[in-house]
Amino acid sequence: MKKKKYLMRIFMHLHAPLKERIQMVKDLRRSLDDKLAEGETIEEAIAELGEAADIIQEYEDLGMRKRTKEWVLAVIWILIGIVVGYLLFTECRILYRGYNYVMVHPSPNTAVYMEYDLDIKTAIIKIVFESMCVIVCIGNAIWHFIKQKRNKKEM
User: Where are the transmembrane segments (predicted)?
Assistant: First the structure.
């Protein structure tokens, strides 16, 4: 049971991509099994390999946590870009149509669409602002992916 807890603690607290965590735990399990086959106790084998916190800290000292952080930040920027891009698409569609509409329910079984005119200046300002936001989001996502790739090459 101690071996399983030891490996699980490393797996859960290690800040690395899933494939790397799985591979690291597999390697540690093989090392523990080899040491147990040689006749060592589980406590001696764990002491020889190092405590879970030490292994995690050693891995993070290599810069793996930073690499994972770059990937997460890039994904967050992509998601923000998708949301802002949808807002931009909606605003452009409304501006192209020249009007907007609201669905009004005068009774439970009926719906009436009411059109209203746009304030063109406000719509254009929104489109320009949302366009800049999309460009910033895409640029940040690309920058984080490039930074992650450079960090991989340095290692």
Answer: 71-89, 123-146
Residues 6+ apart with CB under 8 A from 141: 74, 75, 77, 78, 81
Amino acid at 49: L
Residue of 47, 74, 81 whose CA lies nearest to 143: 74
* Chain centre to alpha carbon of residue 88: 23
Separation between Cα atoms, residue 153 and residue 137, nearest integer Å: 25
Q: What is the pLDDT of residue 67?
A: 59
Only one residue has tokens 């949808």, namely 86
Tokens of 91: 């605003």
pLDDT digits (tens, 9 = 90+) for 98-124: 766 667 777 777 777 777 777 778 778
